[in-house]
Amino acid sequence: MSSQTQEATSPNTPPPGKEVSPLPQINAPAPKHPNLPLPDKPTIIVFLRHCGCPFAEKTFRNLTSLSVQYKDVNFIAVSHSSPEATERWVVEVGGNWDVNVVVDYERELYNQWGLGVSNTWHVFSPVTLFKTLRLAKDEHIWNQPTEGGSRWQTSGAFALRRDGLVKWVKVAASADDLPDLEAALTALGIKLKPKPPPEPRTDGFL
């Protein structure tokens, strides 16, 4: 079975969801949890899809790229795969750079931040499957076997002011719906820097 079609051939019944809190609101205090300490600085938190998901990899790469450009911002990635699977995956996708990686295997943080279980269309829509193929073709980001976690878990991202107030919220409408992390920075009043040039493609003829 090819990695690109793995999503389509996996069981298509979402598991029972856990109790999920209301989504944090703009200008409201962020939820507090001992496993997610928030420093006294602007923070962007990304709750990832499962390790092995190409959209999780793309999001994580975007986050690590910003982490080396904006040193005054705290970047956090939350994974619900196991600690071992998360550690392997982070290394495979290029390392965490200046991103703090938090493992939430029981999905307590996901539920506290209003991110519950998705539905079949969220994961298996034709658009999502097409974008999975395009991501592999265009950026060589491939769908990998799921290591722990759940492909049904909804992803999301949040931007917090240094005092802990929520200034930006993005809940994925589908598996391929990636957060606009530059919009998150803008919501925090941070001036955007020029993007670094893309890495040269090394496949085929130069």
List the helices and strands and how they pair.
Blueprint: H1 6-9, E1 43-47, H2 54-67, E2 74-79, H3 83-92, E3 99-103, H4 108-112, H5 120-124, H6 126-139, E4 156-160, E5 166-171, H7 181-187
Parallel strand pairs: 1-2, 2-3
Antiparallel strand pairs: 1-4, 4-5
What would you say this structure looks like, in words?
This protein is an alpha/beta fold and 206 residues long. It is built from 7 helices and 5 strands; from the N terminus they run αβαβαβαααββα. The protein has a 5-stranded mixed sheet, covered by helices on one side. Helix 3 links the parallel strand 2 and strand 3. The protein is globular and about 40 Å long. The N terminus and C terminus are likely disordered.
Measured as a percent range, the helix fraction is 25-40%
Give the termini distance in whole angstroms: 32 Å
Task: Describe the strand arrangement of the main beta sheet, using strand numbers.
Answer: 3-2-1-4-5
Number of helices: 7
Rg from Cα: 17 Å
Major β-sheet, in short? 5 strands, mixed
Quick structural summary:
By secondary structure, the protein is α/β, with parallel strands linked by helices. Helix content is 29%, strand content 13%.
Question: What features would you highlight for this structure?
Answer:
206 residues; alpha/beta; five-stranded mixed beta sheet; 29% helix
